[in-house]
Design a protein that fits this description.
The complex is a heterodimer of chains A (139) and B (296). By secondary structure, chain A is mostly helical. Chain A has 6 helices and no strands. The chains are: A mainly alpha (139), B mainly alpha (296). At the A-B interface, helix 1, helix 2, helix 3, helix 4 and helix 6 of A face helix 1, helix 3, helix 4, helix 7 and helix 8 of B.
Chain lengths: 139, 296
Amino acid sequence: MVNDRTRAEELTQDVFVRAWEKLELFRGEAAFGTWLHRMAVNVVLNAQKSDGRQRSRFEDDDEGDGIDTLPARPLAPGDRMDLEAAIARLPKGARRVFTLFDVEGYKHEEIAEMLGVTTGATKAQLHRARLLLREALNR
Amino acid sequence: MSTMNDHLTCAEFEARLAEYWDGDLPATSRLACDMHASNCADCERLLSDVASLRDQAAALPPFQPSRDLWAGIAERIDARVLPFETPRAVAFAAPRRAWRHPSVAAAALVLFTAGVTHMWTRRSFERPLVVAAASPTTVAPLAATSEPRQIADPSPDVVATSIRAPARAEPGAGTRAVRERGAPSGGATRAMAGARATLVSNPARAVGAPDVGGEPVYDREIVKLRAIVRERRSQLDPATVAVLEQSIAVIDSAIAQSRAALARDPASGFLVTRLNHSLEKKVELLRTAALLPART
């Protein structure tokens, strides 16, 4: 989601601190793991918004057309490093949706709600991400 | 590569792929895609590659942090937690005069909370009941008397609407990943929540006095907390204990009123809510009392 291990570890700490602070809001209507997982996604998305505001002038999020820095190798089942590297190189919007849908297992409606977009947009991003990944891994 | 197979061109096939993968295509269109893929090697490979991609993505292992993150978390939480089971272990070296202020503040807070609860409960008993979720014609406004309130047509639907525990759809998809990755199940919390939901959704059990079938979750909690407070009584300032007992009496009065009203009107979700609220307040109060600092 954040494409940066150090940042991911910082955010992991943020998640647990936030969970501690918000524990009283957990009503047991969903499994605790689900609640925590959802909170983690929200923490990451909020952090990205905040980071984005600071860096928006220097980075492009979804401006790129695709992935162009992956090694030229055919799709090798089980080759996770290639897949992770390819996901990391996806444009931000496509990466978020692909990670939430295909990796984390959220539904389009949930992703749309978390990202504040329509389900049509998440479906389009997912489709784009899959095709880009396939293209990258088949090179 | 074929350009036209079974009424679909490759471009048309690709245009339908997103819906195909999401399962949003009508059966006939899906069949057309399948037929096209079976006759077009490129499109068949595309389907196969993406299916493999999805499988690999779903099977990606969780990232392991490169270091122990707990120290940073603990440092930021930085909460002094009073051990619940061993309150005696907490000792304060501050002189009695310094100790008294927070104690008085805590006692005042307790009294204020109990008073507000009591007043609110009493006032809500005297107010007409409006069940917004039900059809307006099914609920008769109550007279502003102390008589038991009546619902004109306590049909099962109306009752169910008014007393059902708040239901929020569990985010389904997220659970898949959570399950697969061994996230904590929160079983104990769910058990507690389940018991609480039972208490809310079953007014007969909520007012039932005997502890049968594990119904009175609050009662059990209250008994445990009562024992702790009783044990700590000698450690607390007598003035604090007096305020505490007074507050408990106020809440007990509210509980008794709710139970009496529920005995007359067992189908009232409102009364069940009020009873649960009062019980929660009592638990909260006892919990606060159990954690009060000891007198030096």
